[in-house]
Specification:
Strand content: under 5%
Number of strands: 2
Distance between the termini: 9 Å
Mean pLDDT: 77
Low-confidence stretches: 1-42
Number of helices: 8
Strand order of the largest sheet: 1-2
Number of domains: 1
Shape: globular
Order of helices and strands: HHHHEEHHHH
Largest sheet: 2 strands, antiparallel
């Protein structure tokens, strides 16, 4: 059940990223442990080639970033003081700003959402979501209400315009750090 929740969060992250990319419909909350609804207009996800240094920076700074964002009320817009604190935390790991950190994290999340958590191989977002749908349908331990909600969320993610990874090298880098990134993103239980 816990493995499904982590995988479902990745699928919902993909759906949120796809919605932001297609409709300029929102901003993803930067918490890596939960998926938040789209909040305000944001331009299309800027895909970028990731570097090993960026991935290591995300891994290094995440505890500090979680500590900084955990104090924010849910769905609240950060004020100037909080944004300055987030910028400072991001700069500790070599990012130019919190915005750059967020873009890197969004790119990692998009790629990570296309991995099969069992094989730890990239299969693409659509295949990963279809696998999660099959897992939910076969799960005898979920309540009917939870199953219905999970299937509805996954079907929304499946129907969302897909995000194709433009920088194929990102797949190899995320695969290299898969275990650490999956743990960071809350998908470490299989």
């Amino acid at each position: 059940m816990r493995a499904f929740i982590g995988s479902a969060l990745a699928a919902l992250s993909i759906a949120c990223l796809a919605a932001a990319a297609s409709f300029a419909g929102g901003v993803l909350a930067q918490s890596t442990k939960e998926t938040a609804p789209l909040q305000e207009a944001k331009p299309q996800l800027r895909q970028m080639p990731l570097t090993e240094k960026q991935i290591q920076g995300v891994l290094a700074v995440q505890k500090d970033m979680d500590a900084a964002t955990s104090k924010l009320p849910e769905n609240a817009k950060p004020d100037a003081k909080v944004l300055a604190q987030l910028d400072a935390v991001a700069k500790k790991s070599g990012f130019a700003s919190y915005d750059e950190y967020s873009t890197v994290l969004d790119n990692i999340s998009m790629v990570l959402g296309g991995f099969d958590p069992v094989t730890k191989k990239y299969v693409g977002s659509e295949a990963a979501i279809k696998s999660q749908i099959a897992q939910v349908e076969a799960d005898k331990t979920m309540s009917a209400a939870d199953k219905k909600q999970a299937l509805a969320d996954l079907n929304i993610a499946l129907k969302a315009p897909g995000l194709t990874v433009e920088n194929k090298g990102n797949i190899d880098l995320v695969e290299k750090y898969y275990d650490k990134l999956a743990e960071l993103m809350g998908e470490d239980e299989n």
